[in-house]
Design brief:
By secondary structure, the chain is mostly helical. The chain is built from 18 helices and 5 strands. The strands form 2 sheets. The chain has a 3-stranded antiparallel beta sheet. A two-stranded antiparallel ribbon has the order 1-2. The relative contact order is 0.09.
């Protein structure tokens, strides 16, 4: 136990820096998920910048950066930013992005002006206000219960708790307003009230995080974890959980990177968040670039493979003897246009048991013949449907049927057959195969 206490004492500053960063990042990330879903990321940016004059004015009157007047001043200006943005957009016939740009740049410029002009009278540094000093706030401690804690732990912890309670209490309302504001209004939920409540919470969390990450860098913690989580999942609760995990990892990796490269801790936390976002862009299972490439490859292999078995089936139909025709698999690949996807489709079909290859000859198995029969049935039913209902010329129905045959399942086949009253032949006079039995 003494060794653990000695280790904690040795690494006290690092531990508290990471803990404070994780708490700050998590509080921002939870609310940031809703900003991302509502496509209001820039409004979070606007609020994080625009609260600066409220903080400065309150600081000028109180002389303390962590006082309640500072919190109230930032909260009022944050809500005012959202109100002015919506007012300019609705009443002034100004686009939403333009009104946002006018409001937050004006208020932020006012805050910088106040800092620069009153720097001789108060101890408020512009760099600290903009970039934060998370690596120093752990030195400012208070004693509670005989133990020392960083003073910033309490406002940050309160901000995180408030964000969690806010989401739990208004889970249904926030979910409806985020995905369908019109439905929320029809159900008696005021989308406007929820909007301003969310903006008030964003402003409150922003001012709580102000001392840690500064007015500029807070936007990274407010948006990047939520945006990253949105790439990883389509479920809201999972998105919030993922955003918190990413926020905590940003704190840990950011501090480690800052120590390794002797740079800003808050800045490296944002870099760590950005790096995770970059990884998600590439590696996310469904929405990542690699995942989409794999899905496209799988679809291409499936379509080319189905074209191959359908071609083998049609060749068997044309055969004049009972024996299966002898086809070389290389000739089949050339008939499909060649290409590396066509070459890959053959071993895939063989592994699945749809074709068998003896030497250089390729033949359908019973399983592959059932698959091909279903594809040809879909193709010829669709041709007959196009001719009956759209009166297309016969030379205009093959290509669309060749495309759609890969997406017609057994249920749609039954509906087409019923619509065509179980037609026995397609418009070209070829027999429509019967439905396959699995």
């Amino acid at each position: 136990m003494s060794e653990l206490a000695a280790w904690f004492e040795l690494h006290r500053l690092a531990i508290w820096t990471v803990v404070l960063g994780a708490i700050c990042n998590s509080a921002c990330a939870i609310l940031g998920c809703y900003l991302v879903l509502r496509r209001m990321s820039m409004l979070g940016d606007a609020i994080s910048h625009a609260i600066l004059p409220g903080i400065v004015v309150a600081f000028l009157f109180t002389g303390m950066l962590g006082s309640w007047p500072v919190f109230v001043g930032a909260l009022v200006v944050g809500v005012l930013t959202a109100f002015l943005t919506q007012s300019l957009h609705g009443l002034g016939n100004v686009s939403e992005d333009s009104s946002m740009g006018v409001v937050f740049t004006s208020l932020f410029a006012l805050g910088v002006f106040l800092i620069r002009n009153f720097a001789d009278r108060v101890h408020l540094d512009a760099d600290c206000a903009l970039y934060g000093q998370i690596d120093l706030i752990a030195f400012d401690r208070v004693v509670w219960g005989g133990l020392e804690f960083p003073r910033a732990l309490f406002p940050m912890g309160l901000a995180l708790l408030a964000a969690i309670v806010f989401v739990i209490c208004f889970w249904k309302e926030l979910k409806l307003v985020s995905f369908d504001p019109a439905l929320a209004t029809a159900m008696g939920i005021s989308a406007g009230v929820m909007h301003y409540l969310l903006m008030a919470m964003v402003a409150a969390v922003t001012v709580a995080a102000f001392e840690a990450v500064g007015s500029i860098l807070v936007i990274a913690m407010l948006i990047v974890p939520g945006a990253t989580a949105h790439l990883l999942t389509d479920r809201l609760w999972q998105m919030i959980v993922w955003s918190v995990v990413i926020a905590v990892l940003s704190a840990v990796l950011g501090y480690w990177g800052a120590v390794a490269w002797n740079t800003s801790v808050a800045g490296m936390m944002c870099v760590a968040a950005g790096a995770q976002f970059a990884l998600a862009v590439v590696l996310a299972p469904r929405h990542g670039l690699l995942g989409k490439a794999i899905q496209r490859l799988q679809l291409s292999l499936r379509i080319v493979g189905e074209d191959l078995v359908a071609m083998l089936y049609r060749t068997e139909e044309l055969a004049t003897t009972n024996a299966a025709p002898e086809l070389h698999w290389r000739d089949c690949i050339r008939a499909l246009g060649g290409g590396w996807v066509a070459w890959l489709s053959v071993p895939q079909l063989r592994l699945r048991g749809d074709v068998q290859i003896t030497g250089s000859l390729i033949q359908l198995t019973d399983q592959g013949r059932r698959l091909a029969q279903s594809l040809v049935r879909s193709h010829r039913l669709w041709e007959a449907f196009l001719v009956k209902h759209f009166h297309l010329p016969l030379d205009h129905v093959h290509e669309p049927a060749e495309r759609i045959e890969h997406y017609i399942g057994p249920q749609l086949q039954e509906r087409l057959a019923a619509e065509l009253r179980d037609a026995g032949v397609d418009p070209h006079g070829r027999e429509i195969p019967p439905a396959t039995r699995s």
